Amino acid sequence: MNTILRKSILGIAGLAFTGGVFAGPIAAHADTSAHAAGKPVTVATVQGEQSTISLNDEQTANVKAIIAATKKAGLPERAAVVSIATSLQESKLENLGHLGDRNDHDSLGLFQQRPSSGWGTPEQITDPEYSTLSFLKGLKQVDGWQDMPLTKAAQTVQVSAYPDAYAQWEKQATDLVNQHWTK
User: What is the C-alpha separation between 78 and 23, in angstroms, rounded?
Assistant: First the structure.
């Protein structure tokens, strides 16, 4: 894509995003008890095109583990959505072991956390509950994470080289939380 066209598209996307931020963050998060009342969690302000993948049994088990850890941490469905979207981006919900040269440094597990960055031992990081609780611990330290765009909340914890990549998974993550939260 040529530079002028790319800049035009990015400019329009930026205006659309800015309009959504100023027009809707309160409305997007107004009903925090929606799921408790039997209503599905709604997608906040989805940014950009959405991606989706079909999940196998292992990936579905990891979704359930992330949701269980989120509940154990006493956090709401939105935290599970952010966690699942992050894991979709980082590992496609696969619990990654050492991948040699295909691996990003020493990144492991559902969130590609790194032992050398203090996330834990390789054994801990490849435990879905431990890695999710570690991610959630970081998320809880982000002031206002509940009301910010998913990609900004995830990026603040993960510090990825691709900070906007998490946004593409928000709809699928929300659908998965709606499907598995009460089971």
Answer: 20
Query: Within its chain, how far is the Cα of 142 from the centroid?
Result: 14
Dihedral of alpha carbons 155, 160, 163, 167, sign: negative
Tokens of 106: 């020493």
Q: Is the pLDDT of residue 70 over 90?
A: yes
Place of tokens 């996330």: 119
Q: How far apart are CA 82 and CA 166, in angstroms?
A: 9
Q: Enumerate the β-bridge partners of residue 109.
A: 96
> Of 107 and 174, which is predicted with more confidence?
174
pLDDT of residue 117: 86
pLDDT band at 38 (very low <50, low <70, confident <90, very high): low
Burial class (CB in 10 A: 0-12, 13-18, 19+), 56: exposed
List Cα–Cα distances, 19 to 14, 47, 122, in angstroms. Answer: 8, 12, 43
**Cα angle 127-130-134, degrees, rounded to a multiple of 5:** 135
Structure tokens at 82: 């952010």
Q: Which tokens go with 138? A: 């970081």
Query: What tokens does 91 get?
Result: 């590992």
8 A C-beta contact, residue 177 and residue 84: yes
Secondary element (H or E) of residue 64 = helix 57-72
CB 33 within 8 A of CB 41: no
